[in-house]
Design goal:
Shape: globular
Order of helices and strands: EHEEHHEEHHEHEEEH
Structural class: alpha+beta
Number of strands: 9
Strand content: 25-35%
Radius of gyration: 16 Å
Largest sheet: 5 strands, mixed
Oligomer: single chain
Protein name: THUMP domain-containing protein
């Protein structure tokens, strides 16, 4: 499934159980990497909520699913520069929600790195937000302890999914696990 907008990572020994259960929610396919499933949905948040309900009904499923990562925005990229340009463009659109807030960025990569080094990319994303919020007169600040928001980027090969989760989202959705 090339046009995924949800990634589900699975704990060891839980793959078949999770794959069967996710088919009750929507189309799910094996990703190209170990213990990774990909899904496509019109409403990725509804999928997250459905999966969470399933884990409440079937506790063994909660032990199988490590993380559900719905993307608010997705893009394909062909190089590190192309990736950075696309990610920056999206972050700048989200700026009003980050102004004056604490935050940090997380990158979860699967596949060829294409020149993307996780700490360098996370630092780049954090710097984009710091610069833009300061320029807007409402500086944000990086925090790894109870931030107001976490920017999460997941990649599978040359496709990236971005999401921004507020502290309340992370507290409400136990399968988000952005860090």
């Amino acid at each position: 499934m090339k046009d995924w907008n949800i990634i589900v990572t699975i704990y060891q020994e839980g793959f078949r159980r999770a794959l069967r259960a996710l088919h009750d929610v929507g189309p799910a396919e094996r990703g190209p990497y170990h213990n990774v499933l990909v899904m496509k949905a019109d409403d990725p948040m509804a999928v997250l909520e459905s999966v969470e309900r399933l884990t409440e009904e079937r506790p063994a499923l909660y032990d199988a699913i490590a993380r559900v990562a719905p993307a608010m925005r997705v893009f394909d990229f062909s190089s590190a520069e192309n990736f950075k340009d696309n990610a920056k463009s999206i972050l700048l659109q989200w700026l009003p929600s980050l102004a004056g807030k604490s935050f940090h960025a997380r990158l979860h990569q699967r596949g060829p790195k294409l020149g993307l080094h996780t700490p360098v990319v996370e630092r780049f994303l954090n710097d984009v937000i710091i610069e833009a919020t300061a320029k807007a007169g409402q500086p944000g600040r990086i925090s790894f302890t109870d931030p107001d928001a976490v920017i999460v980027i997941d990649t599978v090969d040359d496709r990236a999914g971005l999401a921004m989760w507020a502290r309340e989202d992370i507290a409400r959705h136990r399968l988000l696990r952005p860090d």
